[in-house]
Amino acid sequence: MKNTLILSALVLLLTSCSKYQINVLSSNNIKKDPDNGKFVTENDSVKITYSFFGRNAPINLDVYNKLNEPLYIDWQRSAFITGDKAVSYASDKVYITGDVSGTSIGNKSVSYSSGSIDAVATLPKSVVFIPPHTHVNNTLLEVTSQFVTYIPDNKFTKKEIPSLSISGTSLVNIAEFGTDQSPLNFRSYLSLYVMDNNVPKYMAYEHNFFVSKLINTSEEPANFEFSQVRRGDYFYTSKATAGGQVATGVGIAAVVVGVAALDAKHPETAK
C-alpha cells in the first residue's frame, strides 16, 4: 500500500511539467473595468459585460435589460468572428446535470429514493428572453487553445512579478502588442431585439478584442494574482514540455520498476 502511494505521488509530480501562456486582452471599442478586467458597454437600453477568465478564454457574456419591456437575444444572428470566419453562438442543445431525490409514504412504511440526471434536451428556438430590469449570463464558447510559438525571442523582456511561490515572485517573459501586431484578434457580434407591434426591432452590437500582452511562464496560473481575483481580461493556455513528456515516460517506468523490486524484496509491504 505504501509503495502504491509513493508511485501515485511521483507520477503526479512527473506529469506536472508544463509551460503556460498568460494572455491579457484589450479592446478598441469597449471599455475595460480597471478593477476586475471585465469589458463593459451600456446605453439606455442594455448593459453588456464580457469576461474571458480561465483556460482557453471562455466567452462569458452577461446582458442586462434596462428597458421596461422584454428584450431578446437572437443567438442565430450572433457570432464569434476571427479573420473572415464566423461561428454562430446558436446551439440547439442544452446539457442537463443534477441530482434528484424523493420520499414516498405508505400506510406502514416510508421509502426514499435518489438518483442523478445526465441528459441533453433539444431547444425549440435559439432566442433568449430577458424580462425588464433583469439579466442573463451565458458562457458561449472558448476562443482559443493555441500556444503561440512564432514570436521572436527579442520581442520578450524578462520581469519579476508577484506570485504565491516560495520566493514571492516569479521570473517571466513578457511581450506587448498593438492591434496590428497582436497574435490574436477576434470580434463578438450580438443581435438583440424588442417587439414592436409583433415585429422584431433589431439592435446590433459588435465588439473587438486583441491580445495586448503575452506572458510565458512555467508557474501555475493559479499562483498569480489575476487568477485569485478572476480578472476578466486574463486567460491562459498551456502545453506539456518536451522534457516533461520524456521525463514522465522515463520516470514512471523507473518508478514502476523500483516499486516492483521493493515489492519482490518485501512482499509483505504490498498487502
H/E order of the elements? HEEEEEEEEEEEEEEEEHEH
Radius of gyration: 25 Å
Beta-strand proportion: over 45%
* Percentage of residues assigned to helices: 10-25%
Low-pLDDT stretches are 5-15, 100-104, 250-264
Basic shape: elongated
- Number of beta strands: 17
Distance between the termini: 6 Å
Mean pLDDT: 82
**Main β-sheet description:** 10 strands, antiparallel
Fold and architecture overview:
There is one protein chain. Helices cover 15% and strands 48% of the residues. With 271 residues, the protein is of the alpha+beta class. The protein has two domains: 1-17 and 241-271; 22-88 and 126-240, no CATH class. Strands 1, 6, 7, 8, 11, 13, 14, 15, 16 and 17 form a ten-stranded antiparallel sheet that branches. A hairpin with a 2-residue loop joins β15 (185-196) and β16 (199-217). The protein is elongated.
Fold topology:
Elements: H1 2-14, E1 18-26, E2 31-32, E3 39-42, E4 46-51, E5 58-65, E6 71-74, E7 79-82, E8 85-88, E9 93-105, E10 110-122, E11 127-130, E12 135-142, E13 157-162, E14 169-176, E15 185-196, E16 199-217, H2 225-229, E17 234-240, H3 242-265
Antiparallel strand pairs: 1-16, 1-17, 2-3, 3-4, 4-5, 5-12, 6-11, 6-15, 7-8, 7-15, 9-10, 13-14, 14-16, 15-16
